[in-house]
Amino acid sequence: MSTLLEVSGVSVTFDGFRAINNLSIAIGEPELRAVIGPNGAGKTTFMDIVTGKTRPDEGKVIWGERSVNLLKYSESQIAKMGIGRKFQKPTVFEDQSVRDNLAMALANKRGPFSVLVWRASDRDRARIEELAEEVGLSERLDDSAGILSHGQKQWLEIGMLLAQDPRLLLVDEPAAGMTPAEREHTTDLLKRAAKTRAVVVIEHDMEFIRRLDCRVTCLHEGSVLAEGSLDYVTKNQQVIDVYLGR
Amino acid sequence: MSLDIPRSTPAPAKVRRSFLHENPSVLWFIGLLGLFTVAVTVLSEGFGIGMISTNLVKVLGMTLCLCLIAIAMDVVWGYCGILSLGHFAFFGLGGYAIGMWLMYARTEIVIRDSLGRGTIPPTELEVSEAVAAQIFGVVGSSELPLIWTFAGSLPFQLAMVVLVPGLLALVFGWLAFRSRVTGVYLSILTQAMTLALSLYLFQNDTGLRGNNGLSGLQNIPGFLHVPQSVLSVWFFWASACALGAGYLLFAWVVSGKFGSVIRAIRDNEARVRFLGYNVEGYKLFVFTITAVISGIAGALYYPQAGIINPAEIAPIASIYLAVWVAIGGRGRLYGAVIGAAFVSLLSSWLTGGGAPNINLGFYRIVWTDWWLVLLGLGFVAVTLFFPKGIGGVFDYLVRKKP
């Protein structure tokens, strides 16, 4: 396992509020990592920084074998390097079919001119079918994404994330609004994805995290409070005080 | 779902057939446009039985040009979500570019004609000076401005029809999109650009004859002997061809994955960035290509109108354009065509003295005064009660079918 992403000494202040305070996290490849912590601990802001949405005041974010400094790049460039993101609130393009949503996410050229002349190849079509199968939306491919249930939208977004074929998946609360059976399916999917890539999951549901069976990082007030196996982290007195005990 | 959007992606081997197959509205549109063109030709004074006056042929031809800029506006606003209040500036620039050639070349013919009657043939310098004095006498100048250097060359001015709006849109769009100006702020910015351009052109020393504008554009050099009744039908044909080609082009652009991406940008541009698409690049592409098409529409419109002046570029024109597209139905190309044709024809009927004024006894409704009120109320009503516009009716009809 080699280090894929290294966040070191990052701080961010919003209007005087320190959202991230000297945060350092390293993610390997392949690895499955769960991030927990109370509201306002900086979990989502951490993803915002890695994906280029938020610029930190200080610190470094280093990516890949060639140690690229991600802070110099735009959101779309970072996404193209292989960092995919699923948002807390499922954000799919509701006006368009499930198929079109997946087609947009497929790992193809992203420039306006190549997209203009792009027509789905047999491989693309097969890949879309395969992804739809994987996230249980095979029957819904030609439906508009807007009429899917909340859980299905979550699935679609996970499918889009996989379609991008990223090296690092940042997944924000994937199980929210899912039935127990769907949650189980999600865990399987994330665990399978983490065999070949790095996957970072933000979750509040401890049962879900237990099933993921992976290394856990607990954030509090913008920095790492504890890191290790789930049992180790949940026995940590500080973690119990700020998060679990509440 | 709009008719323009294919439900599944066509196979590469049969792209062309599939595109039209998947977009039946394109065939319908081209067919109806063809029928309309034939009908107008048959009824015209120049080529047919003369039931339609030359003036009306011109109005209809101009309406087709307005439909062309309306579909461009629909692509940039309805599909990509950029509420540009500046596309009529591109339309006007296209008109000015072709107007310069029309005016220069015609004046040159007239001057050569009169100077040629003398015993000594005029020198090129004499001709050029006489042309300048003739064109710019009205603004108290007799020098040919620098921008008129190649006005005598049709290929050059035709290139300008495309290049001037295209480059302005490219530079303006690059600056605006790069700074991530969006929504109402971008609209204000585009409107400011339009206003600045219009005020600039109103000045006499800008080399485009100030508020006099360019006139006599209905006379086409080389075809001065051809009567207007025939010329008007030629321009009508050209406008119909341009509208048909523009419709095909835009329908193709918005049908595939490109259309998917720009509609996604309209709905949630931040999310599109995280998919790895360079949103600014796409916006710039759409803004520029629609500006170019607007320029071409303007270059076909003003020879039929006969005159262009800076008032044509004023922000209100671009606002009307947005109103047409909203009334016709955003996000569907035929909606924009319906909106532009319906509202602009209604406008010329009501304000052109075609509609009878209504006497209520205590008050007389004079349409020239009340038209704008009617338009405003119509716009508010459509926005509130029929957000899909007139084009939305077609969705309803299509869905009715099994």
Throw out a few tags for this protein.
A: alpha/beta; 6-stranded mixed beta sheet; 4-stranded antiparallel beta sheet; 10 strands; 37% helix; B: 402 residues; mainly alpha; two-stranded antiparallel ribbon; two-stranded antiparallel sheet; disordered N terminus
Quaternary status:
heterodimer
* Greatest chain-chain contact: A-B, 37 and 31 residues
- The total strand number of chain B stands at 4
- Terminal CA distance of chain B: 15 Å
Architecture overview:
The complex is a heterodimer of chains A (246) and B (402). By secondary structure, chain A is of the alpha/beta class. Helices cover 37% and strands 27% of the residues of chain A. Chain A contains ten helices and ten strands. In chain A, the strands form two sheets. In chain A, strands 6-7-8-3-9-10 form a six-stranded mixed sheet, with helices on both faces. The longest helix of chain A is centred in the middle third of the chain and has 14 residues, at 150-163. Chain A is globular. The relative contact order of chain A is 0.19. The model of chain A has no long low-confidence stretch (mean pLDDT 90). Chain B has 14 helices and four strands. Chain B has helices at residues 15-22, 24-43, 54-79, 87-115, 124-136, 154-178, 183-202, 228-255, 257-274, 279-305, 315-328, 333-351, 367-385, 392-400, and strands at 214-215, 307-308, 358-359, 364-365. In chain B, a hairpin with a 4-residue loop joins β3 and β4 (364-365). The model of chain B is unreliable at 1-16 (pLDDT under 50). The chains are: A alpha/beta (246), B mainly alpha (402). The A-B interface holds A 51, 53, 74-77, 79-80, 84-85, 87, 91, 93-97, 99-100, 103-105, 110-112, 115-116, 118-121, 124-125, 142, 144, 160, 164 and B 1, 5, 7-12, 15, 253, 256-258, 260-261, 263-264, 267-268, 270-271, 273-279, 281-282, 285.
